[in-house]
Amino acid sequence: MRLHVTAYLANIRELLRHRFDKGYRNMRFLRSVFKRKAVEDICNLIAPAGKVTLVGFGNWSGGKGSPISRRTCGPLQDIKFCLRQRPDVFLKELDEHRTSVTCNGSSAT
User: Fold this and answer.
1) From which domain of life does this come (predicted)?
2) pLDDT value for 36
3) What is the mean pLDDT of each run of 10 residues along the chain (109 residues)?
């Protein structure tokens, strides 16, 4: 830990100069622009323009013992917001309670 702190302090001037450069702020701005463009591209793949599309989002929650948390699931809220803005997209929240049991039982018959 001490080695890390001394190496950081040795390079503090260069790090601060880079932080206050206009390029750094521009890099942060471009990251948000590219994120918005990626979300828009995903929405165009899900719901092409000119076609009426029904999109269902599940309300799954893993509970306490699940290794999957909702914070690490990607830009779902941004995608939902983008799809809600479109007039030809109908968004539906699906109840996922026991869907795997139902689907498993229906495919076996």
Assistant:
1) Eukaryota
2) 93
3) 87 82 75 92 92 85 66 77 92 76 54
Which pLDDT score is estimated for 109? 47
Which two three-digit tokens encode residue 99?
């869907």
Q: HSE (CB half, 13 Å, CA atoms) of 21?
A: 10
Residue 25 and residue 20: Cα distance in Å, rounded? Answer: 8
| Residue 35 structure tokens | 């994120």
Tell me which H or E stretch contains 11.
Answer: none
Give the pairing type, strands 53-58 and 89-94.
parallel
In the chain the first and final C-alpha atoms are separated, in Å, by 61
Distance CA 102, CA 105 (A): 5
